[in-house]
Fold this sequence. Notes:
single chain; alpha+beta; Archaeosine Trna-guanine Transglycosylase, Chain: A, domain 4; five-stranded mixed beta sheet; two-stranded antiparallel ribbon; about 25% strand
Amino acid sequence: xxxxxxxxxxxxxxxxxxxLEGRKTVTRRQAKAQPRSRADIGSYGKGQPFIxxxxxxxxxxxxxFGKSGERLWVRETWYCDHSxxxxxxxxxxxxxxxxxxxxxxxxxxxxDGLTPYETDQPVWKPSxxxxxxxxxxxxxxxxxxxxxxxDISEEQAMAEGVGIxxxxxxxxxxxxxxxxxxxxxxxxxxxxxxxxxPWVWVVEFKQVTP
Length: 210
């Protein structure tokens, strides 16, 4: 039996919290190769779309995060108070029990907030440096598609894990799509260009046991 393919994916602390709380079940990531029109978007089957390469001699770009049934392990900001991990290259120490390390505070995550003890730790490790063994969130891809960023629906904006306070703030102004406006702000806060309305990979997922 072949092993299910896994790929890493980075999420910020607020988005990690949204995933853990069950509020985030989809992520949008700008496609590196932008279709010239919808005609450039094809599919090898459900959950396996591609963007047609104008050069027919080259491979059609597919979603770099995978397809339906494959998995994503979440990289987030972390810290492990173990001498072997502190010195790098972040290999799992033989004497480190992952479950116990999480329970006793040896292995901690920034998304959970700081306790007084953790405040004394020198530096959080960037998410890009998280090894697979330290991962606590595993996601199974349920669907992948390509669409324009601004085509997001209110339901999808909610599924992106936007903050309830942000939604209520926009709702108070009387706008028709408060979740959509909240997602727009979330997108631009990470350096994304909302006005450019790029084509994005839409990756839907569900949590599974790591």
